[in-house]
Design goal:
It is a single chain. Strand 6 and strand 7 (about 115-125) form a beta hairpin. This protein has one helix at about 1-20, and strands at about 25-30, 30-35, 40-50, 55-65, 80-95, 100-110, 115-125, 130-140, 145-150, 155-160. It is mainly beta. Helix content is about 10%, strand content about 55%. It has one domain (about 25-160): Lipopolysaccharide (LPS) transport protein A like domain (lipopolysaccharide transport protein A fold).
Amino acid sequence: MKYILTLLMIIGVTFVQAEDKPKNQLIIDAEQFEAYDNKGLSIFTGNVKMTRIKDRLNSDKLEVYMTPKKEGVKQKRVALKYIATGNADFEVFTLDKHYIGSGKKIIYNPAKLEYEIIGKGFLKEVNENKTLYGETIFLNQTTGEARVRGTKNKPVRFIMEIESKEKK
């Protein structure tokens, strides 16, 4: 009887812990990890995969800048900026948009909901089937503002599906 009671308690505790897990977890998997708490910097390298709900980011290296840790102060750390480099690509879902993108370097500012894609930039808004290519792509999710820069040899390219009413 003791064993059954102990087993039920363990199952109950495990079930409660599983229910308490936040649904908004940020999970980062990588081959290596370095942390510099006094600078508020964490560096992940080697086959980096970051997920949060349905959003995902893949890269060779990811630097996460957070509010620096203060000695002797219990504080909640806040992510200030993410910088992904090397084979960087992402997929992001908002309330009404779905984006996929890639570039040599991707910078994300979570406080402003801004993305900057640098080097061979690609960004597709899946719902409306709009695609942007450029050397640098800037996107603000809050305002919907987008800026794209190309070069003389690689101009900006915008592709959008349109309806046509051709008469036959």
